[in-house]
Amino acid sequence: MANPPTPCLAVVMPVFNEGATVGRVLRRVLDRPEVQEVIVVDDGSTDGTIAAVREVAARDPRVRPCQHAKNQGKGAALRTGFRQVTAPITIVQDADLEYDPSDYPQMIQPILDGHAAVVFGSRFIGAGPHRVLYFWHYQGNRFLTLLSNMLTDLNLTDMETCFKAFRKDVVERLEIRENRFGVEPEVTARVAKMGVPIYEVSISYFGRTYAEGKKIGWRDGVRAIWCILRYNAPLRGFRG
Questions:
Q1: Which domain holds residue 188?
Q2: Domain count, the chain
Q3: Strand, helix or coil for residue 145
Q4: Domain holding 205: CATH number?
Q5: Distance CA 111, CA 120 (A)
Q6: pTM metric for this prediction
Q7: Strand-strand pairing, 164-167 and 89-92
C-alpha cells in the first residue's frame, strides 16, 4: 500500500461573496492529504463569507483567513495571499464549485518530479467531466489563449484557467499589478518571461451559470486583451 502524500501544498483562495459555497469548497480542499496550508483572502465580501471561513479556521489551523476592507479584485487578493505562502508549492483555488480539489495530484506531480516550475490546468484537453455551457465564452477563451500564445511563444490550450500551480521560488518572483481578472494573462506573461519550465495537465470543470454566481463578463475579456498586449510588450516603457 502506497504511503499517503506528504503535505507540501499552499492553497491560495480569493473569495468575494461566496458564502453559499466557500464552506463546502474548504472542506474539499482540507480533505486533500497534499494540503499544508490554506490562505483565504476575503476581498470585501458583504454576505457573511468571512464568518463562514473563520468557522472552518476555528476547527482546522491550516486555514488562515485574511480580509480586505473593500473589494479590490482577484489579482489584489492573490497578491495578498502569495505574500503569506510558506509551502514549497502553491495552487490557486477559486471559492466556487467550478474547480475540483481532487485534481491536485496531477496538478503538482510535474513539479514534484522536477520537470516543471509552473503547471496550468486545462479545461479543454483530456477526458475529465466538463459541464456544457456558453459557446461564446469558449470561443473567447480560445481567442485570448491564442493571442497570448502568439506573444509568449507558448502552446497553452487554456491561458485563462484558474488552476495554476507554482513552485515557491516562482511565487516569490511574481510581481502582480493587475487587481482584477487581468491577472491571468499577466501571470502567464510573467512566467513566460522567467523562462522556467511550464507544463499543462487535464482537469475537470464544473462551470457555473450567471444565475449560479458566475462573475466574469465581456469587460473582463476586453481588459484581458489589453493585459496580453501590455505585459508582453517588447518596449521597455510599455512593460508591466
A1: 9-238
A2: 1
A3: helix
A4: 3.90.550.10
A5: 11
A6: 0.88
A7: antiparallel
Mean of the pLDDT values across residues 178-204?
95
Contacts of 138 (CB under 8 A, 6+ apart): none
Q: In this structure, is residue 3 part of a structural domain? A: no
Q: pLDDT tens across 80-120, in order? A: 999 999 999 999 999 888 899 999 999 999 999 999 999 99
Instruction: Please check whether residue 1 lies inside any domain of the structure.
Output: no
Give the pLDDT of residue 2.
54
Burial status of residue 124 (CB atoms within 10 A of its CB: 0-12, 13-18, 19 or more) = middle
Residue 57: inside a domain: yes
The type of residue at 156 is L
Q: Are 166 and 159 in contact (CB under 8 A)?
A: no
Could you tell me which residue, 57 or 213, shows the higher pLDDT?
Answer: 57
Let me know if residue 2 belongs to a domain.
Answer: no
| Nearest alpha carbon to residue 171 among 186, 156, 187, 159 | 187
* Residues present in the chain in total: 240
